[in-house]
Amino acid sequence: MLGDARGLLHKGSEIPVIQVMHEQCAVNMADGYWRASDKPMAAMTSIGPGAANTIIGLATAYADSTAVPLFTGGPATHMRGHGVMQELDRHRTNFFPQIASGAVKRSFEAGRVDELPFIMHRAFNGMLSGHPGPVHVEVPMDIQSEAAEVDIHDVAWRWAAPDLTSGQSRLPPRRCFRPSVR
Hints:
Helices cover 30% and strands 10% of the residues. The protein is an alpha/beta fold. Strands 1-2-4-3 form a four-stranded parallel beta sheet.
């Protein structure tokens, strides 16, 4: 069952949650986790100003090719463009995906709760394929509270396949030194 993120905070959740005091810290922490472990760590934030605070961290991750998935809230699907509280552009549909577009490889917007497994698959494949980079997934408020029965495939099936034709691994070795130019 898919539902809102509050379920992650309950005891017994298999996904650890680290609460931070500022949204940019969440993205910087996810960026640092990728650099240290070569594994993605997600950052989650609210609609509007909370999401806008992540742009600098996303730009850093994009410039340095680090895989950071960002999940943001969005206005309820029936309230888009009506000027709901904290919506960045009150005269058009939600504007944050366009704001983030220069700092992410791809941005996704969920229209229905049953689309989330497909969106997650595409987001993680895009994030890890080629040069790693940040992706953005927006989940509107009404979709966060919905539930659906979905099939979740094995994680090995979902990861992007490494490029074996180049003969190189996805990333250079961690302990390599920057070449000096003379």
